[in-house]
Amino acid sequence: LAPGVSLSEATQAIRDAMAELKTPVSIRGSFSGTANAFAAASSLTVDSGATFDRAGYSQTLADVDVNGTVGNTGGGGLLTVTGLLNGSGSIVGSVLTTGSFQGSQSITCDVEVRGVHAPGNSAGIQSISGNLSYTSGGGSGPSVAWELFSNTDSNVGTTSFDQILVGGNLSYATATSFSLAFNGHGSLVDWSDAFWATNEQW
Predict the structure, then answer these.
(1) d(CA 172, CA 20)
(2) Per-residue pLDDT tens digits for 42-62
(3) How many helices and strands in the chain, by DSSP H and E?
(4) pTM for this model (two decimals)
(5) Given a cut of 90, is residue 86 above it in pLDDT?
């Protein structure tokens, strides 16, 4: 980067040049060296009502907090999050998480989890319209943390337990551990309640 030029300004200059040259959508550019390393270590916050558009480019970020929209008008590419993916907004395009995947997002595409999948912040619902796969990629492997906060098997009216809605295929390509929590902060689970007198499923 030239002195005094920000990464966002350089990105826009590259996009403008590619548009002027009428390059095909199959040709994509990316930063290398320290510019790319800086981007990979960055955190992204998308506030409610705001939109961040990846425009089809693959991007690796440390932490992403999405309460607005992460768009992907160019299609393709992969959003890789190595730290915490959190929020209650929407994400368009494929996502790979190698850190911790939390929040109540709506994701339009496929999701690959190599780290911890803990839907919600307390109890929460995640919606993934594509495929959800748990794969190996180093560390101790993928895991799912599930929480129940009340003596119920229904999320109607109040979200009382974690839920992952998958529109495509669910696959466990590697051993995946599950952690079940019934005593989180604010939990009303009572083992003496009549609810527990019969078998339950969620």
Answers:
(1) 45
(2) 889 999 999 988 888 888 999
(3) 2, 19
(4) 0.78
(5) yes
Going edge to edge, which strands form the sheet with 69-71?
A: 51-53, 69-71, 90-92, 106-108, 125-128, 163-166
List Cα–Cα distances, 39 to 1, 99, 122, in angstroms. 13, 17, 30
Q: For all residues of the chain together, what is the average pLDDT?
A: 88
Instruction: Output phi, psi for 34, to 5 deg.
Output: -65, -30
61 by Cβ neighbours in 10 Å (0-12 / 13-18 / 19+) ranks as middle
Residue type, 118: A
Quickly tell me which residue has 């992907």 as its tokens: 72
- Are the C-beta atoms of residues 25 and 74 closer than 8 Å to each other? yes
Instruction: Count CB neighbours of 32 within 10 A.
Output: 8
H or E, element range at 37: helix 33-40
Average pLDDT over residues 74-88: 91
Q: Are 130 and 111 in contact (CB under 8 A)?
A: yes
